[in-house]
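step=predict obj=Cupin domain-containing protein n=112
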Amino acid sequence: MSWTQTADHNTFDPEKLKKLNIFETSDMFCDVYCISPGQSQRVHAHANATKFYYVLSGTVEATIGEETRAIEEGMLAWATPGQVHGVHNKGDSPARLLVVMAPNPNAERAPA
């Protein structure tokens, strides 16, 4: 499939952030992160990849490098290679993010 409706990727897990893969190639991956209130992706870095977070719904706090700020529906944040990044839902409502990273760190297992 070469297209999808992101609204169809909408599964939350009460225990942890849910990553729903939309597609993956050897060049990149594209996921929807479903983040319930209080859940987060820890701050981390990828030495050789760029990652972006696009907010589909809700609001999260995104850390990119030394800065943390609230990003809401329609906003985009990205981390360049080696830059620390992570997200946290401090609000009362669930949030959904479109997350893309290239190159794909899992390239060896991704379809060509």
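step=describe
The domain at 16-28+46-102 is CATH 2.60.120.10 (Jelly Rolls).
step=end
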